[in-house]
Design brief:
Blueprint lengths: L1 E9 L3 E2 L14 H8 L5 E2 L5 E3 L1 H15 L12 H7 E2 L4 E2 L14 E8 L9 E9 L3 E8 L6 H15 L15 E7 L1
Antiparallel strand pairs: 1-9, 1-10, 2-8, 3-4, 4-6, 5-9, 7-8
């Protein structure tokens, strides 16, 4: 088992989309509901610091492994895809900070109204305005635990870099045809 400390520096906006379970009030329009609940789409600690769930990076790494389809040396046509699915752990919340390492709170998050598909699926029929929380500057760091010996530091770094360029984090990320969630990484073994 190896642990790597990964520093992530956002290079495009980060859009949040946590599901909101606050019911719509009977007298409320869709637009009023969106304006009232947009902040509920952001995850925050008890102290008020915004964060990204650990599985967001884990899932992004799995997507990067599928996207890269990098072959495992000496194993024929086998790729690292399954090894990233079962051989990598990200356990801690990714606490968001500004460039100067000051915690990001809801005061730093802007509401952005977008005309999007009502069911969240690209190309589907009806569209509605939704309000999404957006960060324009963001950084985070997290430990990535590699359980699989076949995943070297070089392989992990390549997948993290591809993650930042072609997959992204958050809602409306690059992987889903959006422009958000791109990042650059620094990775060092602990």
């Amino acid at each position: 088992m190896k642990t790597y400390h990964v520093e992530i520096n956002g290079v495009s906006g980060l859009c949040f989309g946590k599901p909101v379970d606050d019911p719509k009030r009977s007298e409320e329009t869709h637009e009023q509901y969106e304006r009232r609940t947009w902040q509920n789409k952001v995850r925050t600690t008890k102290e008020g610091q915004c964060f990204i769930q650990p599985f967001a990076l884990k899932n992004a790494l799995e997507s990067a492994a599928r996207w890269l389809s990098m072959g495992i040396p000496g194993e024929g046509k086998k790729t690292f895809t399954k090894r990233f699915a079962s051989g990598v752990l990200v356990q801690d919340k990714m606490l968001l900070t500004k460039a100067n390492n000051i915690p990001i709170t809801m005061d730093d998050v802007d509401p952005v109204s977008m005309f999007v598909p009502s069911d969240g699926k690209r190309g589907s029929g009806k569209r509605v305005y939704r309000t999404f929380p957006m960060l324009h500057e963001w950084n985070t760091s997290v430990d990535v635990i590699v359980l699989d010996d076949k995943i070297s530091e070089e392989v992990l770094r390549k997948h993290l870099e591809s993650c930042g360029q072609f997959i992204g984090l958050g809602s409306m990320r690059v992987e889903n045809g959006g422009i958000n969630g791109r990042f650059m990484v620094k990775c060092a073994k602990k």
